[in-house]
Design goal:
- With 191 residues, this protein is an alpha/beta fold.
- It has one domain: E3 ubiquitin-protein ligase SopA (Pectate Lyase C-like, 3 Solenoid).
- The chain has three helices and four strands; from the N terminus they run H-E-E-H-E-E-H.
- A four-stranded mixed β-sheet has the order 1-2-3-4.
- A hairpin with a 3-residue loop joins strand 3 and strand 4.
Length: 191
Amino acid sequence: MNQKELDKKLELHKLWLEDKEGGVRLDLQFANLRDADLQFANLRHANLQYANLRDAKLQNADLRHADLQYANLQYANLRDAKLQNADLRHANLQYANLRDADLRDADLQGANLRDADLQFANLQGANLQFAYLRDARLEGVINLQDAAVVVSDFKRWGLLGFLFSDEGERGQKVFCVFDDPIISLERALEI
């Protein structure tokens, strides 16, 4: 898909979001958007399932409520993107830049976040069950709570103190998977 075709679809999507005549919800399921420039784009409620967004420029994009299941977002730049309530189940976000992204209530179940940069991202209420976060950069993550995470080397993240303080403030438990067994934060701190 070339930039002209994409811009036309984005214009129709804007009309749809504004509930205006002629508007059409953006459906880019299976689309090849590799290297696409979607900075500041309004992609709310868009269907991007299985889309190839590798190396896409999505800085400051509005992806609230977007469906990104199984999307390839390797090396994508999502810095400062709005991803509240986005469906990112099983998305490939390896090496993605999610620094300062707003992922509140996003569904990242089974997502590949290996080597992703999530520094200062807001993960309040995000579903990280079975997400793969090995070597992800999580310094300064905001509101990590109610998370279930599959990891193989949790100590690398340097997050044990952060998670402990979050658990203490909220009175909630954060569960981690070390290879097979699920253990509570208190047990994780003993390792």
